[in-house]
Amino acid sequence: MKKLFLFISIFLLLACIASGQFSKAAMDSINKLTREDYKNMLDQIGITSVRPGPSGNPTAPNAANMDESKAGQYTSLPDPLILNNGKRVKSAKEWWKKRRPELIELFDNELYGRVPDNVPEVTWKVLNVTRDSVGSVPVVTKKLSGHVDNSAYPAIVVNIDLTLTTPAGAVGPVPVIMEFGFVFPAGWKPPVSNRPQGPPEPTWMEQILEAGWGYAILIPVSVQADNGAGLTAGIIGLVNKGERRKPDDWGALRAWAWGASMALDYFETDKDVNAKKVGIEGLSRYGKASIVTMAYDERFAIGFIGSSGAGGVKLYRRIFGEQIENLAASGEYHWFAGNFIKYGADPLTQNDLPLDAHELVALCAPRPVFIGSGSTENGDAWIDGKGMFLAGAYAGPVYELLGKKGLGTTEHPPLETTLTDGDIAYRQHSGGHTSGPNWPYFIQFAKRYLK
Ligand code: GCU
Predict the structure, then answer these.
(1) Among residues 82, 262, 316, 390, which one has the fewest Cβ atoms lying within 10 Å of its Cβ?
(2) 214-218: strand order across its sheet
C-alpha cells in the first residue's frame, strides 16, 4: 500500500517534469493559474465546490476504498445497445448509424469535450534520421516535428514531438505501435524494486522489433500541457486564441488523442509504415489517452490500455480506488470537458453520468483492445483493475453485434491469467503501476491482427 502512494507521488512529480516545469517558483505559478482557470470553469457551469475525493494514501483517514465487498454499490449500468429513445439496437447498421453517434455525442458533451471544427493544419518535418541498433536489431530512427499552423494566432506555438523507429532490414512497410511517452529528466532512473529480480527482460521496444514491427513515441505534453494552467495555451489555447475553454470544449485527453491522429496522418505518408496496422499504447493518464484515441479514431488498428483507471476504462460507478471527485478536482479536471466536473458536485454523482466506461470500450468495436493492469496488492489498487476488467466485459455485446468476440466472462480472473480468446483482452500482472510484464502478452495478442 505504501508503494502505491509512492508510485502516485512519483507519477505526479513526473507529470510536472513532463510539463517542463520543475522549479518551485514555476510550480507555484502553475498552481495559481490552474486555480484561476478551475474557478472560472466552476463559475461557467454554476458550481461552487466539488466534493472532496478519497486519498490515494492508504493510511489517510479518508483513504480510498480498496475493499471489494464495498465496491459494487451500483444497481445498473447504462446499456450501450439501448438508443436514447429507449429502443434496442438490433443490427450492426443501427449501431453505426444511430447508437455510436449518440454515444459519441454524450462522450463529447459530458466527458472528454469536443474537438473544434477549425483545428489548424499540421505540417510534419523530419528533423533528423539516425541509424543504429536497439537490442540486436539494426534500426532507422526519424525524429519528427509536427508544426501546427498558428498564422491565426502567432502568440501560441505548437510543435508536436514524435520519433519513429523501424527495423533497418524491413522489406516494405511495417506495423507500428505508438506510445504516449512520459518525459524523464536527464539522469532519471526508475525506482529500484525490492522484489526478487529475474534476468533482465528485453525492453518493450526490443520486443516490438523482434516481432518485426516498428515503434513510435509521441510526447503528449508537446501538444497540450498536463495542467489546468496550460489550457489557454497548447493546441486547445491556440484554437481558442488564448481565451479560456467553454464547458464542452476538449480537455487534454482529447487533445493528446488528436495529436496521435495527427501522427497517424504522418504515418500514412511514410513508406516505412503500414498505416493500416498502427496501434496505440499508454500507461495511466496516457492509458486514458490511448483508449480515447482508439474510441474516436477508427483508423487505429489496436490499443494497449495500461492501468488507465478512472477517466479511462474503469467503471465510474464502482467505489474502489480513484473516484469521480478526484478527477473533477483542480489537479485533473483539465483532462476532461468542464461539463464533467458537475458529476463530482452535489446533487450529481457518478450514478447520474449518462454513460460509463464500458461504452468507451464499445466505441472501439470491432477493433481489438488489450486492457492491462498491475496488482491491487503490489501498488496498482488506485486504478482498480477489476473495474477496468468489467468495463471490458460489458462492452462485449457491442463486439458480438459486430460479429466479434468479447471477454467471454464477467468473473474477474486470478492474477496473471491471460484472457485473449476474444477481441477484447485482459491481463492483470502481479507487479505495480507499469505495463512492463504485460508487453509479451499484448504482442502475442496483437500478432493475430498485425500479421
Ligand atoms: C494519478 C491520477 C490517475 C492517473 C495517474 C497517472 O494517480 O489520480 O488518474 O492515472 O496519476 O497518470 O500517473
Answers:
(1) 82
(2) 122-134, 137-148, 159-167, 214-218, 174-180, 273-283, 302-306, 369-373, 424-428
As for how many domains the chain has, the answer is 1
Q: Is residue 290 in contact with ligand 1, taking CB distance under 6 Å? A: no
Mean pLDDT of the 271-284 span: 98
**Residue 220 domain-assigned?**
yes
Set of cell numbers at residue 225: 500541457
| Ligand 1 and 396: CB distance under 6 A | no
Domain that holds residue 7: 2-51+78-185+200-446
Instruction: Give 130's strand partners.
Output: 141
**Cell numbers describing residue 32:** 495559481
- The grid cell for 347 is 446533487
pTM equals 0.94
291 within some domain:
yes
pLDDT tens-digit profile of 72-100?
878 899 999 999 999 999 999 999 999 99
CA 87 to mean position of chain CA atoms = 31
| Residue with grid cell 478526484, as numbered in its chain | 326
Q: Which tens digit of pLDDT belongs to each residue from 349-363?
A: 999 999 999 999 999
Per-residue confidence (pLDDT) for residue 22, from 0 to 100: 61
Q: Name the grid cell of 368.
A: 481489438
In Å, what is the CA distance from 174 to each residue of 43, 95, 289? 49, 32, 24
Distance 298 CA to ligand 1 centre (A): 26
Write down the number of H helices and E strands in the chain: 13, 9
The span from the CA of 194 to the CA of 6, in Å, is: 14
Among 10, 307, 308, 322, residue to substitute to test ligand 1 (most atoms within 8 Å of Cβ): 322
CA distance 54 to 203: 35
Distance in angstroms (rounded) separating the CA atoms of residues 69 and 40 = 39
Locate the ligand 1 atom nearest the alpha carbon of residue 311 and give its number. Answer: 9
Per the listing, cell 508487453 goes with: 439
Q: Residue 284 C-alpha to ligand 1 middle, in angstroms?
A: 6
Is 258 part of any domain?
yes
What is the 3-state composition of the chain as percent helix, strand, coil, each rounded to the nearest 5? 35, 20, 45
**Does the pLDDT value for residue 12 go beyond 90?**
no
Q: Has residue 57 been placed in a domain?
A: no
